[in-house]
Amino acid sequence: VKIFAPNIEQRDVVNHLKGSPAEEKRNVLIESARLARGNIEDLAELKASEFDAVIFPGGFGVAKNLCSWAVDGKNCTVNEHVHSTLQAFHSAKKPIGLCCISPVLAAKVFPGCEVTVGQDKNVDGRFPDAETASAIAELGCKHICKNVNESHVDKANKIVTTCAFMCKAPLHEIFDGIGTMVQEVLKLA
User: Fold this and answer.
1) CA gap 115, 118 in Å, rounded
2) Secondary-structure class of domain 57-188 per CATH
3) Which positions are annotated as active-site residues?
């Protein structure tokens, strides 16, 4: 297992204690290295031939830095190294795991694929970003409704997705969904 991140400037920096923007600049690779305790490499160096699968986490980092979904929605652009990584694994018929908001990466790169970001309706207030499912459909992909503790496998494209924090759920349910995604990726590897 190796961890990679793009060597780019973050779109913005947030002071999470105050919930407000911070007036500073940070680098995605350096911040990722802090979280990974330094055991990380530049995404530009990733070679699909050296790995059995790839998994992308989610969160605002994906929506702001790996692509511009947070600002541009379905009209977003995908970072060139993220795009080429996804293409390389797909071309090699190796599994791709995506959780939380990162299934939108597949929706942009692989028209016609199947993904989940949870539900397409805000059921009981648990899916406040349910409109993301509609945007995925507008991109020509099929959104599959799943509960937070489940994942969806697009067997034709070897793409496995789960909604994670796209659902307001207890952490153990999010953990279970991510666990099923990882298990399904490993089955396809």
Assistant:
1) 9
2) alpha beta
3) 100
